[in-house]
Specification:
Blueprint: E1 8-12, H1 16-29, E2 32-36, H2 39-49, E3 53-57, H3 65-74, E4 80-85, H4 90-98, E5 103-106, H5 111-125, E6 133-135, E7 138-141, E8 146-149, E9 152-153, H6 158-169, H7 177-185, H8 194-207, E10 215-218, E11 222-225
Parallel strand pairs: 1-2, 1-3, 3-4, 4-5
Antiparallel strand pairs: 6-7, 7-8, 8-9, 10-11
Protein name: Response regulator transcription factor
Domain Response regulatory: 8-122
DNA-binding region: 130-227
Length: 228
């Protein structure tokens, strides 16, 4: 990832120890961080702070994270929103995505996973803030919609490009088929989950990943990109 100087992140959670932990970690990473303990404070803070990323806990007393998300998006802000949820339920994911959330993280989560999600949102929503980005053997230039792998430009369809980008930018994290469908095909996709398998197979062919060492299948869970 290129320089993150000046990138602002707003954290919203009613649990002070979570806020403290995340604030310390993200500040050490170089982000400018501000926090709020409740929904109303978050809405006011978002107007004044204008964060690039807002990380919102769903379950808060009074105004919950969904309502905060709705109000931030309604204001026209360019803030990218990541929801924190303790429930791995399709209804919660769909509700969040429908009202404008850009991603979600299921509690409990690792700090490294959250960082990967933040990096992915910044690359997707604010591509002009960064030049070409390197992830292991991959080089990604989102402005050109171009992937280079071990010095070789990959010939990818638009869907293959988006799928590989999602997996690479979340490298080391297992992505379920449902999560991939939400992010790459859209939450309203009406097709079969096996479309993911078809595209994974095609990507492996183009990466010459015959042993599935780059895009790994995690049985019963999904797929994970590793950098050998």
């Amino acid at each position: 990832m290129n320089s993150i100087e000046g990138i602002k992140i707003m954290l919203v959670d009613d649990e002070p120890h979570i806020l403290q932990f995340l604030e310390l970690g993200l500040t050490n990473e170089g982000y400018v961080v501000k926090t709020a303990l409740d929904g109303m404070s978050a809405v006011t803070l978002a107007q004044d702070f204008q964060p690039h990323i807002a990380i919102l806990d769903v379950m808060m007393p009074g105004m919950d994270g969904f309502e905060v998300c709705r109000m931030i998006k309604k204001s026209g802000a360019q803030t990218s929103i990541i929801m924190l949820t303790a429930k791995d339920e399709v209804e919660d994911r769909v509700k969040g995505l429908t009202i404008g959330a850009d991603d979600y993280v299921i509690k409990p989560f690792s700090f490294e996973e959250l960082l990967a999600r933040i990096h992915a949102r910044l690359r997707n929503q604010f591509p002009n803030m960064f030049n070409e980005v390197t992830y292991g053997p991959f080089k990604l230039d989102d402005r050109k919609k171009e992937f280079v792998y071990h010095g070789r430009i990959l010939e990818l369809s638009p869907t293959e490009y988006e799928l590989l980008k999602f997996l690479v930018m979340n490298n080391g994290i297992v992505m379920s088929k449902g999560m991939i469908l939400d992010r790459v095909w859209g939450y309203d996709f009406q097709g079969e989950e096996n479309i993911v398998e078809v595209y994974i197979r095609s990507l492996r062919d183009k990466l010459n990943d015959k042993e599935h060492q780059v895009i790994r299948t995690i049985r019963g869970s999904g797929y994970r990109v590793d950098f050998p």
